[in-house]
Amino acid sequence: xxxxxxxxxxxxxxxxxxxxxxxxxxxxxxxxxxxxxxxxxxxxxxxxxxxxxxxxxxxxxxxxxxxxxxxxxxxxxxxxxxxxxxxxxxxxx
Length: 93
Prior knowledge:
Layout: E1 8-20, E2 29-42, H1 47-59, H2 62-68, E3 77-79, E4 82-84
Antiparallel strand pairs: 1-2, 3-4
């Protein structure tokens, strides 16, 4: 759309996560610690044109925007074809 020629682009993504707690005690908690990206671009275009491509690509990236902006998550469950609410059952110690 921007008519900017990119000869080559390589992107490297590192995601860091941790989890704590116990599955048996139902205290397990997963957490994202961060995501790092590095993009190596080869192009004979002026740097300002390449910058516009990069900014638009990042702004239009569903994954990056989902991480950066709080996103609602709705979960529904069925058990043997019937609606199921796991939170309606007491946790056992």
